[in-house]
C-alpha cells in the first residue's frame, strides 16, 4: 500500500500534532529524515499492513519501501503520536513478527478443554518479498494437556525464512477449565499497558523525539 509524507523540521512534533499531523522519521544506516503524515491515512494503512508488510512511502515524490519499526502511543488516548519507518535496501533481509491464525477445532474441546494462547506471532528473518501475511496453525489434534511450540510450525513458514524465536517456546496449550481460569488470572496480573508497538530491531537510529 502507498502512504504519502512530507519532510519536516526535526523537533516540531508537538506543533504538528496540534494541527492533526502525525510526526514520523524514515531511517536506516544511511539516512534519517523527519517527515509528517496525515493521521487518518496512516491509521488506514497501518490497520491493513501492520508491522510486517511493506509500505510504499512517498516523500514529496520520492518513494521508499519501508516497514513500520515502532509506533509510539499516547497511553491515555491510545493514539499514535510518532512513527519510525525503517527503509529497506535491495537484497536486505529483515526481522519481522508474523501473525499466527489458529484454525480447526481441538479434539479436547469435547471434554471441556479451553485454548490458552501464549503467543500470537513468531519472529522470522527473511527477504521482504517472502514475508507472509499470516501463518495458519491447525489445533485440531490437541487434547487436554497438549501444547504446540514454535518448533512444531517451522515448516509452515516460507522455506526462505529463518525462524528466530526459540523452537521450544509455547504457542498454545489446551487446558482443563480450572487450569485455564488460573492461567488467565495470572496473565491479567502480569499484563501492563503497552506504550509502543514495535516490529523488532534493525540497524541504525530512529526517532529523534
The secondary structure category is mainly beta
Q: What is the mean predicted local confidence, pLDDT?
A: 85
Helix content: 10-25%
- End-to-end separation: 26 Å
> What is the correct CATH architecture of the largest domain?
Beta Complex
CATH-wise, what's the superfamily of the largest domain?
Ribosomal protein L25, C-terminal domain
Quote the CATH topology of the largest domain: RNA Polymerase Alpha Subunit, Chain A, domain 2
Overall domain count? 2
Instruction: Quote the beta fraction.
Output: 35-45%
Biggest beta sheet summary: 6 strands, mixed, barrel
Descriptive report:
With 209 residues, this protein is mostly beta strands. The protein has two domains: 2-92, Ribosomal Protein L25, Chain P (Beta Barrel), CATH 2.40.240.10; 94-187, Ribosomal protein L25, C-terminal domain (RNA Polymerase Alpha Subunit, Chain A, domain 2, Beta Complex), CATH 2.170.120. 15% of the residues lie in helices and 42% in strands. It is built from three helices and 14 strands. It has helices at 13-18, 39-49, 177-190; strands at 2-7, 21-28, 31-38, 55-59, 62-74, 79-87, 94-103, 114-117, 121-126, 134-138, 147-149, 162-163, 170-175, 196-198. The strands form three sheets. A six-stranded mixed β-barrel has the order 1-3-2-6-5-4. A four-stranded mixed β-sheet has the order 10-7-9-12, with no helix packed on it. Residues 192-198 have low confidence and may be disordered.
Short synopsis of the structure:
The protein has 209 residues and is mainly beta.
Tags for this model:
single chain; 209 residues; mainly beta; Ribosomal Protein L25, Chain P; RNA Polymerase Alpha Subunit, Chain A, domain 2; 2 domains; 6-stranded mixed β-barrel; 4-stranded mixed beta sheet; 14 strands; 15% helix; elongated
